From TrEMBL:
CDD domains, per the entry: VOC_like
Superkingdom of origin organism: Bacteria
Record lineage: Bacteria, Bacillati, Actinomycetota, Actinomycetes, Streptosporangiales
Pfam families documented for this protein: Glyoxalase
SUPFAM superfamilies listed in its UniProt record: Glyoxalase/Bleomycin resistance protein/Dihydroxybiphenyl dioxygenase
Signal peptide: none
Gene3D superfamilies: 3.30.720.110, 3.30.720.120
Protein name: VOC family protein
Matches recorded under InterPro entries: Glyas_Bleomycin-R_OHBP_Dase (IPR029068), Glyas_Fos-R_dOase_dom (IPR004360), VOC_core (IPR037523)
Amino acid sequence: MTSLRPQGLCPHLFVRDAEAAIAFYREGLGAVEVFRNTLSDGAILFVELQIGAGRLLVSEEMPGLGALAPPTLGGSPVLILLEVADPDTVAEQAIEAGAELEQPVRETFWGERYGVLRDPFGHRWAVTTAREQLTPGEIVQATAYRPEG
């Protein structure tokens, strides 16, 4: 049996105001628009954005198709991880563009500088960069011992 190998992964986010979301991702996360597909009435079917080496699709919420935005659902259970060279600067830039800070950027026991933001459309983002390459065993050990503070 031949196995199919994935070629990549691209989150598809649904929002209540696609134009505003695209502007936020551009300003707050440095996204670049790659492709735009609109319906005959001008509504955005989807916009493909590039953020670093990754891709992101953004579409207007479409309840009739079950494509719901986080506010409609009461929040998002998904956390999108964005690896960057400088998570502190990216977090500041995103906050200035309208994101809310959920967890400040800080050094973590698993060897990364890491923080969590919520964008103005309800999607959650972790901004992170690896500082120290820990082995799986070192991470498990650090998880078991977490000093106060």
